[in-house]
Structures
1.
Amino acid sequence: MPSGQVSYKQIEVEPLTPTIGALVSGVDLTQPVDDALLSEIHTAWMAHLVLFFRAQPMSPDQHLAFGRRFGELHIHPAAPYAQDTPELMVIHTDKDSFRNNGERWHSDVSADEEPPMGSLLHIHQVPSRGGDTSWSNMYAAYEALSPTMQTLLDPLTALHASDYSGQYGDHQPQRESPQANHPVVRTHPVTKQKVLFVNEVFTRRINELSREESRAVLDFLFDHVKNINFQCRFQWEADSVALWDNRCTQHMAVWDYYPESRSGIRVTIRGDRPF
Ligand code: SIN
């Protein structure tokens, strides 16, 4: 959770809101990130959940290298990729698009058995206005629930499933659309705090409830995570970079710029099985 109390030697960290998001300066992501710098970025990341870096003209190789400083990279089951490299997921919307990637609230590929820990998005081309992305803090979403609701949700599990058929035109999927059962409330492996872990893109049902109960509780939770008090909203510029933690945030990309184009590359960091 944001603390604001940490002092950094190499980077400057300016929170966007008291709840989530911070702008980081004093870093050149076209250069290798050494252990001391990585440690500061990681501390800020755990405190603010999503970090933003401006004016970072990274090459795809530099982007991959920065992502790999956090762990092995994840490959999206179905999305197109750049430069014959499946780890370089293409994020692109233009006048011919019939959908915008990530336009509903979600945590990336939560239907994987081991959903991605983090995502690192480098936007190359922005529309003249619009195309923002919002993130919501899932620690705050859990903490805002009544103790009675927390007690109900704590032991439950939910089925997450994906269906990417038709979503990416004629691009060949990497593998079958995944599905997995995850705790409704997971514990963040670094901060050890509880997080609400259901999202409207991937979560299909709560296993221990009847179909009707599951629908009612999920509808409530999908609405609850969108509370504006849990959110920050970022206005991209060309060469802005965002690093978010999929274990404790959800995000959505606003498609308000049709027929203009918006383009970037996402590198995604593998995670572990939620507990
Ligand atoms: C995504 O990774 O869900 C897309 C986010 C964005 O395009 O801002």
Note: Residues 35-48 form the longest helix (14 residues).
2.
Amino acid sequence: MLLEGKKILVGITGSIAAYKSILLVRLLVKSGADVKVVITPAALDFVSPLVLSVLSKNKVSIQWQEQHEWNNHVELGRWADVFVLAPVTCNTLSKMAHGGCDNLLLAVYLSATCPVVVVPAMDEEMWHHLTTKQNLSKLISYGNKVLEVNDGELASGIIGMGRMAEPEEIITYLEENCFREKNLTGKKVLVTAGPTYEAIDPVRFIGNRSSGKMGFAIAEAFYLKGAEVVLVTGPTHEITNYKGIQIIHVETAAEMFDACIKFQDAAIVVMSAAVADFTALKIEDQKIKKTGEALQINLVKTQDILKYFGSSKHPQQFIAGFALETENELEHAIKKLNEKNLDCIILNSLNDDGAGFEKNTNKISIINKDGIMSFDLKSKKEVATDIVNYIINQI
Ligand code: CTP
């Protein structure tokens, strides 16, 4: 978990969106972060310091002094790995842009030595106002990061721009922009995911049950280690919230091949897609009618993308494939490892409970020329981290 042990200071100002910050604090603590909260006096109208202190497991700072004790703003600003201000009102935004310092939160901001993330919330006209734009540009020019508002229902009843980003989006933003690791910085990684669909007529296709979950989790795990990630995926309901991952959507095995070969220079290639091995020799122009008692469709082999990459592998490249087997698992996996010239093959067996398509868990073994390493049944996210850590160790 990327936020584990990170020191995160949450600043809350007087906006109705402050109710979402309660959940933000909860999610940060659940992610393993050490959380402290500073709020403006105006925020007291919207959130209870008691709730925030129970959830953050720390005292909430509001005033310069509390019970005759000085609240050390410098200490708070230096303690944090990141200071995330959510929500930031127009008023606080303006004061931040111009060096205003009439409350503790602003003093903490001016003293902060860590990265600062500004998450605004306001009504639509205020968001579009020129002074808001200028204040935001100023804050960005000072080195602050800004997570822009969303479109949606506002407190005024208007539908438009101005909603504060959701707590989950703020967490993703922090992971992506403040805490990505650097193990694979500068390395390009190509990942394939999902099924392919091979059309037989204008309305039907041959497909498979792959959900894309494993490939998406692998792409995200690589990305969070600092890699530049290209994800080529077949039809899937999966999405990634990380904006920096380049996603290319394809439908057929041929389209997947064409998309992948543009990234043959990738330092690491992991192909987890369940690519169709056969495609229709001819796609009928019209819908096939149910005349006759049986139907024969002629299929021809697709290009094996992984094998193609293995046969043209460049010296520093690391290539991993997947093998989903139902019998003689190890034997089949080793055969694919050798025939496709891979650095390793990740084996999952449909005979293992909790492994395979459409599930949120998987149980894998990683096989290379030196032997086999078996892992327990885990969530696909954890399996992805195991795979990425294994590859980092190998290269
Ligand atoms: N693969 C590929 N292109 C194909 C078929 C498979 O890139 N046209 C990749 C898959 O992404 C996976 C690996 O090859 O990483 C193994 O795929 P699989 O279909 O299990 O193995 P095959 O070699 O096709 O053998 P078989 O279907 O006979 O088990």
Note: The domain at 188-394 is CATH 3.40.50.10300 (Rossmann fold).
